[in-house]
Specification:
Layout lengths: L2 E6 L23 E2 L3 E8 L4 E13 L3 E3 L2 E22 L4 E12 L1 E6 L10 E3 L2 E25 L5 E7 L10 E2 L7 E5 L3 E2 L7 E10 L6 E10 L5 E12 L2 E10 L2 E9 L3 E7 L1
Length: 279
């Protein structure tokens, strides 16, 4: 186990610039449903301690989705230093998820975290359908002074993501668009090349990739990535094993993307791509 200790001084403006829709801090009488931003306030009186914010929101997932928590903005009063970690717990009848957010905020203090990729914090975490109770708990240390911290935490801090829906086939692809370079042996199809963002702030695309290979192994690794054409940054990379059915390997995908231009690519076992736009 490798532990990295980061000691730094963050000099940031305390002006709050909120990203996305702004919601009031959660209280016992305010329970948010599918918020894009969580606003919480933490009172700090001791050098170290914890605070359980309890249930602060409902995440209602009708179909497979992705969450990725990230500190969008913060403000502090009366504190000279602090090292802060947050944990989010999502609980439903069918599934539970815990997302640790180490070193979400620290200044004039050290912060130690295990060097491992954390789904839901470092990369998007797939969430299965269900109605989830979202709880937050804060853990802090090395606090100097007495005061408060205001946190704005994004729940979907990604530009685009790829969600694997399984090795199924669409019922009808008559009006779907086929990627250039597709053949009778393999293809990449998408239901539309352009769509509008929904209330969630993301547009959605359905994608179908298939490879016909009757004499090859029983499973293949499919690799996909989606890249922003504005920044050149890879927004999400997905690697999945796909089982062969009736001599064909197939994968159905759901793409969620914020407004912008993107390139979706399959890079293994074949190479094809298609450009997508969200208005």
């Amino acid at each position: 186990m490798v532990i990295i200790v980061i000691v730094g001084i963050l000099i940031l403006s305390l002006t709050l610039l909120y990203v996305g829709e702004v919601y009031p801090p959660a209280t016992t009488t305010t329970l948010l449903t599918n918020p894009s931003i969580l606003n919480v306030e933490l009172d700090v009186r001791d050098e170290k301690g914890t605070k359980d914010f309890g249930e602060i929101a409902i995440i209602d997932v009708g179909k497979p989705d992705m969450l990725k928590f990230k500190l969008a903005d913060w403000g502090v009063e009366g504190l000279k230093s602090i090292s802060l970690n947050i944990r989010a717990d999502l609980v439903s009848k069918n599934a539970n998820y815990s997302i640790n957010m180490p070193c979400i905020l620290f200044f004039n203090a050290s912060c130690a975290r295990i060097m491992v990729i954390i789904p839901g914090y470092d990369v998007p975490l797939r969430i299965e359908p269900g109605r989830y109770s979202l709880r937050l708990k804060a853990y802090w240390a090395e606090a100097e002074g007495s005061g408060s911290i205001r946190l704005s935490i994004s729940t979907r801090a990604y530009g685009a993501c790829i969600i694997y829906l399984g090795g199924i086939s669409p019922q009808n692809t008559t009006h779907w668009i086929t990627a250039e370079g597709s053949t009778r042996s393999y293809a990449l199809l998408v239901n539309t090349l352009e769509t509008s963002a929904e209330d969630s702030g993301y547009g959605e695309f359905m994608v179908y990739a298939w490879v016909f290979a009757p004499l090859q192994e029983e499973s293949k690794i499919f690799k996909f990535k989606i890249t922003s054409l504005e920044t050149g940054r890879t927004e999400h990379y997905l690697e999945i094993p796909v089982e062969k059915k009736n001599a064909t390997y197939s994968a159905m995908l759901l793409i969620k993307a914020a407004p912008g231009n993107y390139r979706l690519s399959i890079i293994q076992p074949v190479e094809l791509s298609v450009d997508l736009k969200v208005k």
